[in-house]
């Protein structure tokens, strides 16, 4: 199934015209909204492929054979929290039962607040901030795939222990960049390193990083920590190479789409953390084989994998509790999801904690050289694995009000 951006935006624009009364006519109907970045710096990270990932989950769940009707709609939040929150509010009011994806931590946190207010279900796999399951957790939100704590622990901790004991950060000036720099700083210091400086830049208005790179080079730090993502990370790495930067570049959030855009000649040797890689094992390869016809020239990122996995688990939960019950109460649906073990081809067996954190192993990868790669999208080699119960922040350390002793 191929979906164009025009189709996606058109379906989203039409959605607010729906009413709860019309939606309620079919007792076995559900509506899922993919709220994403269709045109900005995170369009390859999430974007149209997130919609296709949700569709893949419906197919793999086999809704046709279960007398279940599920519609998938989508919209572009334009990386603006007010726009994202407004769309989420309209969606929940007009019959959307679940919102997924939502790259951009500022938007992700805003949508979490709307989900709680409207008692809708919300699975975020696109935003990174660990605050979604920390001080800003709520009973309607689950955080899938990855977060800033996991990225900081795996990449930041490993590089510091390997000798990169002084850091300078270039940071996107919004919730995601702030959280990623904060969490990485903690692990750098725990490993005996220090942060000698940082500079924030306006997001998403920046494409030229020359000024920030000059400040980084002048700092004398051994490691440049890039607390950004998507096209910002791509541009930062390319410009660092052109500038001849004499520092180890740590891309703290790098997706396979970024590596593809950079090319192995530029990206080779980069260390990165991910919870999903299409060629990791037999199950990830099986998912990727099913997904490939929808996007033959691309591979799923861990955000797309999170959309797929989250939607699949949501469908299992709604079936277990009854569709009518799930539609009435988003918090109860999320609680049902937490009570059930997770299992799918992208992340394997896992679970969801009280704070809404979906647990899965975390992998430290290194990007292959062109000579090591055996073909298109064969980009990663595994360096280390952090087990699921150790990859994310301890349950009692995040300040989540849902956590009880």
Care to describe what's here?
By secondary structure, the chain is an alpha/beta fold. The chain folds into two domains: 5-146 and 281-360, Rossmann fold; 149-277 and 361-391, Rossmann fold (3-Layer(aba) Sandwich), CATH 3.40.50.2300. It is 42% helix and 19% strand. It is built from 16 helices and 15 strands. The strands form four sheets. The protein has a five-stranded parallel sheet, with helices on both faces. A hairpin with a 3-residue loop joins strand 11 (342-344) and strand 12. Helix 4 packs parallel to helix 5 (105-118) and helix 9 packs parallel to helix 10. The protein is globular. The N and C termini lie far apart (47 Å). Mean pLDDT is 92; it is low at 1-25.
């Amino acid at each position: 199934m191929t979906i164009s951006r025009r189709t996606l935006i058109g379906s989203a624009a039409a959605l607010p015209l729906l009413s709860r009364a019309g939606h309620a006519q079919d007792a076995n109907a559900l509506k899922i909204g993919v709220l994403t970045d269709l045109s900005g710096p995170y369009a390859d990270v999430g974007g149209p492929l997130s919609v296709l990932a949700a569709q893949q989950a419906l197919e793999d769940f086999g809704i046709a054979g279960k007398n279940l009707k599920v519609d998938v709609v989508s919209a572009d939040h334009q990386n603006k929290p007010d726009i994202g929150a407004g769309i989420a509010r309209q969606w929940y009011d007009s019959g959307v039962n679940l919102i997924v994806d939502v790259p951009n931590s500022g938007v992700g946190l805003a949508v979490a607040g709307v989900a709680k207010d409207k008692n809708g279900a919300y699975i975020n796999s696109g935003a990174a901030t660990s605050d979604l399951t920390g001080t800003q957790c709520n009973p309607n939100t689950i955080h899938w795939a990855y977060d800033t704590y996991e990225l900081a622990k795996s990449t930041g901790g490993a590089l510091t222990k390997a000798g990169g004991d002084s850091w300078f950060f270039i940071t996107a000036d919004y919730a995601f960049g702030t959280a990623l720099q904060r969490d990485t700083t903690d692990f750098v210091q725990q490993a005996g390193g220090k942060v000698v400086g940082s500079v924030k830049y306006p997001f998403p208005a920046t494409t030229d990083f020359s000024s920030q790179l000059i400040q980084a080079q002048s700092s004398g730090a051994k490691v440049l920590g890039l607390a950004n993502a998507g096209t910002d990370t791509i541009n930062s790495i390319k410009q660092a190479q052109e500038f001849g930067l004499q520092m180890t570049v740590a891309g703290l959030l790098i997706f396979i789409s970024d590596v593809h855009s950079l090319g192995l000649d530029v990206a080779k040797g980069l260390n990165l953390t991910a919870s999903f890689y299409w060629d990791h094992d037999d199950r990830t390869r099986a998912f990727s084989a099913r997904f490939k016809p929808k996007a033959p020239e691309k591979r799923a990122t861990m955000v797309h994998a999170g959309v797929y996995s989250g939607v699949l688990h949501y469908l299992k939960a709604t079936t277990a509790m009854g569709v009518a019950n799930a539609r009435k109460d988003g918090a109860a649906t999320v609680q049902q999801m937490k009570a059930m073990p997770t299992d799918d081809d992208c992340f394997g067996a896992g679970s969801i904690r009280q704070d809404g954190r979906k647990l899965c192993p975390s992998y430290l990868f290194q990007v292959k050289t062109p000579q090591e790669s055996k073909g298109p999208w064969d980009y990663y080699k595994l360096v280390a694995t952090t087990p699921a119960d150790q990859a994310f922040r301890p349950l009692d350390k995040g300040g989540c009000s849902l956590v009880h002793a």
